[in-house]
Every structure is written in C-alpha cells, then in structure tokens.
Design a protein that fits this description.
There is one protein chain. The longest helix is centred in the last third of the chain and has 19 residues. By secondary structure, the protein is of the alpha/beta class. The protein is built from 19 helices and 32 strands. It binds adenosine-5'-triphosphate and magnesium ion (MG). Magnesium ion binds next to loops.
Length: 631
Amino acid sequence: MSRYTDFYQRSLSDPDAFWSEQAKLVDWNTQPDQICDNSNPPFSRWFVGGKLNLCHNAIDRHLPARSDQPALIAVSTETDTEQVYSFAQLHREVQRMAASFRALGVKKGDRILIYMPMVAEAAFAMLACVRIGAIHSVVFGGFAAGSLASRIEDAAPVLVVSADGGSRGGKAVAYKPLLDEAMRLSRHKPEAVLLIDRGLAPLPLVAGRDHLWRDLRKEHLDAQVPCEWVDSTHPSYTLYTSGTTGKPKGVQRDTGGYCVALAASMQHIFDAHPGETYFATSDIGWVVGHSYIIYGPLIAGMATIMYEGLPIRPDGGIWWQLVEKYKVTVMFSAPTAIRVLKKQDAAYLKAYDLSSLRALFLAGEPLDEPTAQWISDGLGKPIIDNYWQTETGWPILTICNGVEKAPSKFGSPGKAVYGYKVKLLDDQTGEELAEPNQKGVVAIEGPLPPGCMQTVWRDDERFVNTYWKSVPGKLVYSTFDWGVRDADGYFYILGRTDDVINVAGHRLGTREIEESIAAHPNIAEVAVVGVADQLKGQVAMAFAVVKDSAGLTDEAKRLKLEGEVMQLVDRDLGAVARPARVRFVHLLPKTRSGKLLRRAIQAVCEGRDPGDLTTMDDPSALQQIRDLMKA
Ligand code: ATP
Ligand code: MG
C-alpha cells in the first residue's frame, strides 16, 4: 500500500484517532473532550469542549520563537508600496484594531462586515475580529451597492470596516459612495463604520457613524487585548459562495475544526514549513483568501504575501519577481489567472530565480491541459490542481504532497483528500458508482471533516435542503459537480451538475467539450452551454475567445475556424458533442472571482432571464452574447 493510501485509510477507519493527532498541531486553551459529535446529522461538531482562538494560533503562539520574522508582506503594484510586518508588529497592529473595535461597541459574537481592498489593514481587521470572538463577513471589495446591501442585511453587522477605495489597473475605485448607497438600501443599519484612508478617493464622513482608523489607532497605540478563548464550535466567520450557479450561499465556519484542518493541510497537502513564505494570489473576498492568504500560512508560522494588483502590471513578470525577492516556497493561484499570463511572453517565467519555489497549486475552476502544460513547461515545477468549495474551506481532491509526492495527471485534481469520504453517485438513483470510469455526482458521506461549513448562516433548513437532500433517504453532501474516477483513484471533474447536457439521450459534461475546443491553437478560452432544442432535447453551443482575432473580420474566415473547432470535437468526442454553433467573442461572462457564468450564457441563449447577476464582473461580455443571439 502506498504511504498516502495508508494515511487516507487511517483517516476514515479511525477518524477520532486521526483527528485527535491533527489537533495537536494547534494550541488549545482547553483541550477538547470529544473529537466529533455527530449525534444530530448532518450537523456535526468538531473538537467539542475545546477552547481556543484563531488569532492566537495565527500570531501569539509564534511570538516566542519568531517575533522578528516576517508575517505579513503587503505588496501593492497599484500604489507602489511594499510593507513587511513581523509577527511582533502584526501582533501590535491587530491589538490596536481589536481595541478600536471594542471602543466602537463590538462584543463577542457580534458580526463585523469587512469591505476592503487587498491592504494590510484588511488582514488586521479579520484577525482582530477573531481575536475578540467577533464574526467576520468579508465582502469582495468593489462589489456593487446592491450586492453589498444584501450581505449587510444578511450578516446584520454592528460594524463595517472599509476604505476610501481600491485600485485596479492603476485606476482608483471609490468604495465609500458604494458603501453609503448600500447602507441606505439595507434595512439593517450598522451603528458604526471604521474607515481606512488611503488617499485614493474622497472620503466624506457621516457624523456619529463614521470613524477614521488613523484616529482610533492613535488612541490605542499601546493597547493590549488578550485573545478571547472561544468554544471550538464558535463561528469564526461567514462567507458567500461565488454565485456561479445562482444566489450566493452564506457559509458559516467554526473555529476549532477550521484551525485544525488548516494546520493539517499546511503540512500534509502543501508541505509548507514555518519560516518560509507562502504566496496565494487570490483575494480576501474569497475562500482561498481566508484559508490560504490569511489563516493557513500564519497558523503554520509562515510569512504570507498579500498582493494588490494585476498579474501583468507593471509586466507579466511581477509575480515571479515577488517569488524571487521573498523566496516563496509555495504558491497558490487559479487557472483563470494563468490563462491571463498565457497571453504574455513566456520569457517572464524564466527571468527570475525561482529556485525557492517547490510547487504551484491551482484551484477554482477546471485546469485545462494546454494551460497546465504551458505553466508547467515555463516554471519547471510541479503544478498541483486542487478541487474544493467555499463550503469545505480546504481541498477535497488533490495530491497530498506532504504525505507522498505522487505524480499528478493532467486534467485531474488528484485523489480524495484524507478525511473526505468522497463518493460518485448516480444522479438518477443515488446509487454509489463504485467501479472506475463511471460518471456521477461528486458527493461526500457525512460527517464532513473538520473545517467544512457548519451550516448556512441563520438558515439551518437551507443547509439541509440545499446540500443533503439529493439522494432520497440518505444523508450525503452533494458538491453539485459531476465527475469520474479512474482505476488509480484519480478524479476528473466534468463540470457542474447544472452544466451536464443531454443531447439525444447522451449525457455530456460541458467541460469535456470545452477541453476539446481549447486544444485548437487559436482558441484562448471557451464556454460551452446546453441550449434547449426541439429535436434533440439539448444541443451544445460554444462561445470562444480567440488568441489572434486579426483574421476573423470576415465571415468566411470565422466559418472556417468554426469548422475546424467542430472537427476537433467530432474527433475527440464524436458528432453528438459537436456544438450547433461556435461563436467568437471578446470576453466571456465571469463572476468577480473569475468563474465562467455558464448559466447566464445558457439563459440568454434560451431567451430566459439570467437571474441573479450581482456577482458578475463585466456586463459587456453577456451583452455581446445577447447581441450575437439576436443577430
Ligand atoms: P455558487 O456555489 O454560488 O454557485 P461557486 O460554486 O462557483 O458558486 P465556489 O465555492 O467559489 O463557488 O467554487 C466552488 C466550485 O468551483 C466547485 O464546486 C467547482 O465547480 C469549481 N472548482 C473549484 N476548484 C476546481 C477544480 N480544481 N477543478 C474543477 N472545478 C473546480
Ligand atoms: Mg458552489
């Protein structure tokens, strides 16, 4: 048996022993007296009776050994600033923030909504929150007023932490007018707002409500705010899913299970070590930002890089320059970002000394083979795909590099991660598909391992009904992704269950068709959706962004490329998968976190209302598709 197989089996056959061992990676104020209480499924409670604090584990516990070591490296290529905070400095800033929160009336269990750009103060705010037992709800900076208002209503915070603005591609984005509008729209009115003034945008203050961090910080320069020991099951935060398939869901996370899960993942998955530097290129508004920009690396005693800016500004080498400068050992990004880099000169990947870097982890969307190959060739490092969800908080499928350096297979995020009883289920009958190479819904048998969602914030019923009711008479968690497992136990994600299309009785994952199309040398990116068809039930429709659009001005050339793409699909998957049309667009509609909004494309193609689009990035992308469909 391989080392990993043994490790995985142990996590499932004796979960109490396995997780009580992992719990030793964390500092407890009071040791738990029960590892997992699953007496009320699907609600499970981890490390019951234990008391701890996330901020203590991220900062205070490291002070004796590494107070002068870098903890937070805040880099902005938008404002041309770079600031390194040691663990001791971070400790001081977080206490100043925590004291300011208390001065503004925040108590344990209260919510604080954080609507911030990628600046150090956002990290101070998150850490200060959990330090005093308050619950943060980070909302991606720059979300429009309506989306922000609905999140303010849902979280009902006593305090909002925000800034005058952010910046994207050198252009300032004012946050304050959006925040003021959201506060007006929301039925819940937070009592106080704490504002960071970066000198980027006007910052008009509402008397009695708005406070400047600059002023409060000065009042609390020497503040000492001890960590509030909270129950393991005390919520640490709420966070919304990306809204790719519909209205975002408010995920509620515990404290103890999350802390243990992250500490364990830093060792077993990322093979990361104290004193090293971790660089996740995500945003604190997403789950990767929570787990692997802020908490995971700090809990592991590592320095973490927080980066504000584009991956291609000042040029396509900026990330690799940071890897060289800060001797990054582990990096985490998303396929969508690598596709952006792919349009730049590959020489940037060779221009810096990347000898410190051991692996690049990618998650968030299917990693297509051409993209994986390009970055793998360019960096000459292991590229490790990992599959998970906001709901789970840490990877479900990957290669656990810290346990055994097993090979990756392109197109596969790897094997089931320890602690997760991953199953493939027949979507009609709910039967488990135990044989290899059968397509089914990726599901997880309960109890979910530590660190996964506790419930939907203030909506236990939605938690049960959304995630646990897909198989009649059986409590299993559905990921709503469609996948297949090979004989070696490697999974392949074929798309979301919503994205499975049925052409004349053949069930096809949109991902399979996209993979085939993406192999064409002139296709940069593609989205495939199923569109209702009277004859066949559904047909595939493809929207592609080309690398070189110079030749596509006339119809004949577009048709030629369309023909080539169709031939590729015929060859790879057969004529049944061939898209009815391949349309060429400048941009594909995506969420703010960079995920393809296939459901919106599909709705537009079928002439339906595209539904909740509050998390959509650039509306012109969907408009172009609307225009094409009308033409
Ligand atoms: P919503 O749940 O609101 O519709 P979302 O599912 O996009 O939005 P996230 O939690 O950010 O919200 O994303 C998780 C989803 O992203 C997964 O369920 C899966 O569909 C996709 N995903 C994440 N990582 C991978 C990966 N490595 N390969 C394939 N798909 C992935
Ligand atoms: Mg989801």
